Amino acid sequence: MIVISPLILTSCFYKAENTKTQNTESASGETSQEIEKIANVSLVQKEVVGTGDTVGVDYVGTLEDGTIFDSSIEEFAKKSTNYSSGRTYEPLTFTVGAGQMIKGFDNGVLGMKLGEKKTLTIAPADAYGEAYTEQQVPAKYFQDVFKEVVPRDNFQDTITQIVPMSALGEQGTNLTVGKVIEAGNVKATVTKIEGENITVEIDNAQNPFYGKKMTVGLKTTFEGNTVTVKKLTDTEVTIEVVNKANPFYGKKIKEGMEGTMPNGGTMKILKIETENITIGIPNTNPLAGKTLKFDIEIKSIK
Prior knowledge:
Elements lengths: L5 H17 L9 H8 L14 E9 L5 E4 L2 H4 L14 E4 L7 H6 L8 E6 L9 E7 L6 E7 L6 E7 L15 E4 L2 E9 L2 E7 L15 E4 L2 E8 L3 E7 L15 E3 L5 E7 L3 E7 L9 E10 L1
Antiparallel strand pairs: 1-2, 1-3, 1-17, 4-17, 5-16, 6-13, 7-10, 8-9, 9-10, 11-12, 12-13, 14-15, 15-16
């Protein structure tokens, strides 16, 4: 007589049940193995970089003369001026198209494949900008003395204006007559509220003749300049300005000259024309104005 142990029966039962579980179909007809594949699809590496992907990139950044200025690889970073022993050197991770990188680098990885290597050459405009930000300034502002015709209303101690509430942003809410609104150094008092507009009186502290009666010959000092009233009409004032705020006061200006502005910043004369002068405000980024080269490799795409 053969006796079957309950343990053997129990073991067979569980094996059979496990086999069934592994091949069980869902209500939609998918097996548990297929469901597991679907659940893990987000863990699969993508093959080609596209906008919105999170990528890991190893890079070596060099200047046109071959000088290394940065790298994600410690071996190369040690040869640069930016090496830091406390930094963890690993692939740079960023989201493509999210504005986290300079434009040339961001665009350069698009379409690259996992493991692909590439050299990016990026002009200043797509890197850290040109060496100077250009601005055009009327040429008279670089003269030692100049005249200017200004609306007479600009020299009132108080200026009345009608302003849409919407133009005041958060300050345009809960307004009452008499409330003082401040914007930088300018203070305005609400004198009337009508519909969506308010009337304000602006304390014109920027008036160089503040508190004085306007007469021909009236002279004052304003922001380092001597300002004299030369002519008055009902609507206009002609003033003469001894322009000591001119960075090149007392000098004949030439293209390429550099000077210090009233705010302490520096500037450079880039181009001189009859009516206007083009000046350059230096870009303080040490890589500004430079063409950069990046040797890169795509290490991950998600």
